[in-house]
Give the backbone structure.
Amino acid sequence: MCLAVPGKILEIIGEDPYFRTGRVSFGGIIKQVSLACVPEARVDDYVLVHVGMALSVVDEKEAAEVFTYLKAMGELEELATPPPAAPP
């Protein structure tokens, strides 16, 4: 299932609103995300992210609520980075 996942912006990279990205934390998992659709987003804002693109800014309470629902549904596994492969 494809869902937008809430995350907190830790850092914004770039000045151009069409090309800026951000380091976003999804419950401790950090991913690089495009911020082109949310030019108003700032560090410490929460955004809903789908396929590497922040789609909207949400408040902290809404982000926590959505994150709780996704976790209960088991929809957050795809965020986890797989462990490194064991050497041969």
User: Anything to note?
Assistant: The chain has a mean pLDDT of 86. The helical segments are 60-73.
